[in-house]
Design goal:
It is built from nine helices and 14 strands. It is α/β, with parallel strands linked by helices. It has two domains: 153 residues, Rossmann fold (3-Layer(aba) Sandwich); 102 residues, 2-Layer Sandwich (Hypothetical Protein, Haloacid Dehalogenase-like Hydrolase, Chain: A, domain 2).
Length: 275
């Protein structure tokens, strides 16, 4: 096993608890990575502004991934790279989501747009990204700069049935993946979390073998495939755990910190020059 020089982590369900808390132990674990010369960054389905609250506590210095890899942003949230959904693709995705009676959110620029302020998981998302949505009458009037569409639904089975329908309708014109059991994300074609891993690998000159990725959901598997060492959270599904090299504790048991201490730091070698 090669030494680890770069760690890339998912956020929700991995780095933070179910109640959206960044624990002291997780903060301390990232500090230990920095102290050992191991670079660290995050990749999330969140919008860029939903990552702001993590930058200072984790002393993040590298580019971060947002929208499941559709955007690469600096720690000051300057957008370095971003892809958008073509309006016609966004419109078709929304038509399928509506046919399943799934709530629809769209993220465009620095705004989160909804047409139902009382929809499923609105308040949970507010707690997560610390921004309230902008309520509009017709979402279809705001499709010129869409980075992500989310189908939100408290009926997990209905959302699971909706997923293949959206994927079949859009084919290779968009990426369709679950970021939570209650969220179905539609992002631009050719984007996934693995794209961010590859970009950081190139920017930092770190070989694949020296990259560790940590995650819990299906959308994190793309990171696993681009990394030399992959770690699934204890709260991940059996399918996701099966695709990782190792499994740690759940996010509510400080599984991220456990992974750093038990699985990553022992592979730190003499440290890395990456910063």
């Amino acid at each position: 096993m090669s030494r680890i020089s770069l760690v890339i982590s998912d956020v929700d369900g991995t780095l933070i608890t179910t109640d959206k808390v960044l624990t002291d132990r997780s903060r301390a674990a990232v500090s230990r990575l920095h102290a050992r010369g191991i670079a660290f960054s995050i990749v999330s389905s969140r919008p860029p502004f939903g990552l702001r609250m993590l930058v200072e506590p984790l002393a993040l210095r590298l580019p971060m991934g947002a929208y499941n890899g559709a955007a690469l942003v600096a720690p000051d949230l300057t957008v370095l790279e971003q892809r958008l959904l073509p309006p016609e693709v966004a419109r078709e995705a929304m038509a399928v989501l509506r046919s399943f009676a799934v709530d629809i959110w769209i993220f465009t620029g620095d705004r989160w747009l909804v047409d139902d302020p009382h929809g499923a998981y609105i308040e949970r998302e507010v707690q997560t990204i610390r921004v309230r949505p902008t309520v509009v009458e017709h979402l279809e009037d705001h499709l010129d700069s869409v980075a992500k569409i989310v189908g939100a639904c408290a009926d997990f089975e209905r959302l699971a049935a909706c997923e293949p329908a959206v994927r079949q309708r859009l084919e290779d014109r968009a990426s369709v993946v679950r970021s939570q059991p209650y969220y179905l994300d539609v992002t631009p074609a050719g984007t996934d979390k693995g794209v961010v891993v590859a970009e950081l690998m190139q920017r930092l000159g770190v070989p694949t073998a020296e990259i560790a990725a940590i995650g819990d959901m299906e959308n994190d598997v793309a990171m696993f495939r681009k990394s030399g060492f992959s770690i699934a959270m204890g709260n991940a599904s059996p399918d996701v755990q099966h695709l990782a090299h190792a499994v740690t504790l759940s996010n509510d048991e400080d599984g991220f910190a456990e992974a750093v201490d038990r699985l990553i730091l022992p592979r730190a070698g003499n440290g890395s020059a990456v910063a």
